[in-house]
Design goal:
The protein has a single domain (3-149), classed as Flavodoxin domain (Rossmann fold, 3-Layer(aba) Sandwich), CATH 3.40.50. Strand 5, helix 4 and strand 6 form a beta-alpha-beta unit. By secondary structure, it is of the alpha/beta class. Strands 1, 2, 3, 4, 5, 6 and 7 form a 7-stranded mixed β-sheet that branches. It contains 5 helices and 7 strands, in the order E-H-E-H-E-E-H-E-H-E-E-H. It starts with a strand and ends with a helix.
């Protein structure tokens, strides 16, 4: 069965709400035949990435960059997964207090090096997530599950 791997760093209530919306969308009843694996960024491994068919990444924007936890994830999986995961789909959601651009650029740079395929533009939220932001997160989760299901 195809697997969607959600790798996240969720240190704040805002990111928790976004994570829950993404996870709920990925598990929607309308999409069948997809396993959803959830791993915190500090414990996700190359084995998890190699076993998955697509990826959903969540991070805060910290001082203009992705979280150290997500960077740690990429450092651990980059070379072991470089060729084996080429062209696999991914999605991204980012929360920031004042800016998310640096975090998005950093993730896109690394995923470009991995030759992962971005399914849609990232969901970015500054400040507390509004209902529309959480709906966008839900839709991202559902879209990624559908993409992995084929």
């Amino acid at each position: 069965m195809p697997t969607l791997l959600i790798v996240h760093h969720t240190p704040s209530p805002a990111l928790q709400a976004m994570f829950e919306a993404v996870s709920s969308g990925a598990r929607t009843d309308e999409i069948e035949g997809v396993d959803i694996a959830v791993r915190p960024a500090l414990t996700a491994s190359a084995v998890d990435v190699l076993a998955a068919d697509g990826y959903l990444l969540g991070t805060p924007a910290n001082i203009g960059y992705m979280s150290g936890a997500l960077k740690h994830f990429f450092d651990g999986i980059y070379y072991p997964c470089l060729e084996a995961t080429s062209r696999r789909p991914y999605g991204l959601y980012v929360h920031g207090a004042s800016d998310t651009g640096g975090a998005v650029r950093a993730v896109e740079s690394i995923t470009s090096g991995l030759s992962w395929r971005q399914v849609r533009p990232p969901v970015t939220v500054i400040g507390p997530p509004a209902r529309a932001d959480l709906q966008a997160c839900w839709e991202l989760g559902a879209l990624m599950a559908a993409e992995v299901a084929g």
